[in-house]
Amino acid sequence: MAIVVRLDVELAKNKMSVGEFAERVGITPANVAVLKNGRAKAIRFSTLQAICQVLNCQPGDLLEWVSDEPSA
Predict the structure, then answer these.
(1) Are residues 52 and 58 in contact, defined by beta-carbon separation less than 8 angstroms?
(2) In this predicted model, what pLDDT tens digit does every residue of 14-71 receive, in sequence order?
(3) Is the pTM here over 0.90, yes or no?
(4) What is the CATH code of the structural domain delimited by 2-66?
(5) Of the four, 9, 29, 65, 71, which is 20 to 30 A from 15 by CA?
């Protein structure tokens, strides 16, 4: 099973650069890249809350579960 991070979609919807987003959320651009590339192993709820506040979205808009099993 895999969790796909859709941060790039939400950034595009909000026409926001990675730099501006990182500054407003209070994380580094490098950590934004880790999130966008799906390399993050965890995220603090306080960070998730800040991301949702800045992007005016819900956690489900950012995270999607995708099954590793082939569909029948």
Answers:
(1) yes
(2) 999 999 999 999 999 999 999 999 899 999 999 999 999 999 999 999 999 998 877 7
(3) no
(4) 1.10.260.40
(5) 65
